Amino acid sequence: MAFPNGIEALDKAFSGIGVDEKSVINIxxxxxxxxxxxxxxxxxxxxxxxxxxxxxxxxSYIKNLQHQFNRFxxxxxxxxxxxxxxxxRLLEEAIKKGPKHYNVIVEIACxxxxxxxxxxxxxxxxxxxxxxEEHLASHIQATERKLLVALVSAxxxxxxxxxxxxxxxxxxxxxxxxxxxxxxxxxxxxxxxMILATRSKPHLQxxxxxxxxxxxxxxxxxxxxxxxxxxxxxxCTPEAYFTRVLEAAVEQDADEESKAALSxxxxxxxxxxxxxxxxxxxxxxxxxxxxxxxxxxxxxxxxIKVDDS
Amino acid sequence: xxxxxxxxxxxxxxxxxxxxxxxxxxxxxNENLIIDILGHxxxxxxxxxxxxxxxxxxxxxxxxxxxxxxxxxxxxxVLWTLDPAERDAHLANEAxxxxxSSNQVLVEIACxxxxxxxxxxxxxxxxxxxxxxxxxxxxxxxxxxRKLLLPLVSAxxxxxxxxxxxxxxxxxxxxxxxxSDKAYSDDDVVRVFGTRSKAQINATLNHYKNxxxxxxxxxxxxxxxxxFLALLRSTVKCLVxxxxxxxxxxxxxxxxxxxxxxxxxxxxxxxxxxxLKIIADEYQRRNxxxxxxxxxxxxxxxxxxxxxxxxxxxxx
Lengths: 309, 316
What we know:
Chain A is mainly α and 309 residues long. Chain A is 68% helix and 3% strand.
């Protein structure tokens, strides 16, 4: 079989929807040293001439490619899993990875419906032979434990009924917790944690509105970044939360955790994001290759069209 | 094992409804008929009867029972007629409204039911009361009680038999330390009892006894006046040996001067279709008298009859 032009073939294999793995394998397996050298010299993006007489790989670009493949693969896997298993696995991973990932726990516990969260708890039993609350409680020592365990254990009422007088009194309690009580440790304020962990979302959203009207600022305005802020946002203003997370993910100097959020948010929130409409532009500008195609495809109005040509 | 008996040839639902309607008709009520029918139907059958009765006569069967019956008998029949999930939701809701002595009922429901039974109760709670069980518990309890009760009612425990023995060791030691320091409502104590699977807790308590010589219950008896300690003891019993727990509740309810009908009604109506037989056996073992005989001695009338039917007592 004639050896195809390496660069063109690789380019083709790497771009477009779907990795043409066969081509890549073919090229790599069949190239001899001469071929590989010409491949390297013909690909300035990936390789530059080193003073010591060899084509040195551009590490950041290579890493970038690697990440693209990993993220692509991760996003594909996430999309294919049953939502319950998906959420259970995301939770387990977040617990294992530690404090910088606790926002994922908050995100799942607070943005899923009561039955979806319940499903994730059931899947957790099946997958890990332990309950989520048990696992979480034994891994997290700090003040965050109470809030996080309570959030994953909630089975919130989902009806529209909201009691105005309770909304008012609880807005007051939250105000005290955030403004007056031990400000350095709002999570230690038991009543505040109880309210956030047990009340229905309509109730909390009404509370959020009332708070803004009464105290002239939002619940989260003065809060530092952290799980308390995430909790309130996820429960009361989920669109704002997801916007924030997505924007952080596509920033130039985003860290790994922020970038990982992109797949997770787009895969799990695609219905919501489709309606929003602005996300596509951000992805267009900041991503590349297969990964970009997949992300755009997920939030486009139709399903991804597989290129048969 | 259940004590409920259902006849092998069950009348049709419409027959049952007709008979019940007849039982209510006219001056006075035919209580025997009510006992005969409802006392011998399982949850599925009772639900169907309620549904059909409502469709046929335009009246909720429970409302009719409420109207026609009185006192302890009424409460027993109404509670019994509800299906287990609704019954638990009803009892839990009642408990959140009363005093701290009702915290025990919350512990009982949260800890003796299986994970799925507790879940169904939470779902029934949404449907019936338009709010979540945990929000009511959070709102109506305070301090250490709330700290313990909230995780208990929110738990969805793993139900496998797998046990981590080294973890059991670590946690037994932890519990022993906290108890020795009288830190009964410590975060870790609550965490162990609020989240671990029943099998794991059992292993931990076995290790506790092996290592420290005492049953953990004994070490939790330091202050007989401490309500929280009492609740913690109930929690432990409900989680690892519920039949003994229920036997104690019954013994206390029946032998007291003046029967505690509330507790008696609650235990019989909630356990008749699950494990009342085992509880009754435990009662006999502990008191040298069959449960049914104790019931006969301490109660009377229709209330007594219904209790006996639910307890599987054959008519003489």
